[in-house]
Amino acid sequence: MAATTIPRIKKRTKPFKRHQSDRYHGVKEAWRKPKGIDNRVRRRFKGQLPMPKIGYGSNAKTRHVLPNGYKRFLVNNARDVELLLMHNGSFAAEIAHGVSSRKRIEIVEKARVVSWEMV
Predict the structure, then answer these.
(1) Closest CA to 107 of 86, 85, 81, 89
(2) Where is the composition biased (Basic residues) (predicted)?
């Protein structure tokens, strides 16, 4: 397992909801920044929905780190597994979606030979 001494903490786990998405069916919940000149959310009035801002960002050292302590590395072919050898155990291989089952078997076999972590 990769060594991570800093605990992985998400500052906000609830998703940011779009203003008035609870009121109108046509306004979906996916976040959109309010742009209106009189909008209460944009003006950050008390009691309104929170807006995404830079302060909610994760720690740079633990950003994109998986629960097992590794970061993802997308593998498209067996040669990509050799690239991981240079990254001294901080990345785990993830096979790309469009890779065929025959190539997947080759990639997994190659990762097993070099004893590499797969996601």
Answers:
(1) 81
(2) 8-18
Is the pTM above the cut of 0.85? no
Neighbours of 111 (CB within 10 A): 19
Cβ within 8 Å of residue 31, ≥6 positions away: 15, 16, 17, 18, 52
Ranges of each domain in the chain:
12-57, 59-114
For position 3, what pLDDT does the model report? 57
Per DSSP, helices labelled H in 32-118 are 78-84, 101-113
Collapsed DSSP state (helix, strand, coil) of residue 31: coil
CA angle 61, 63, 69 (to 5 degrees): 80
The Cα 119–Cα 110 span in angstroms is 14
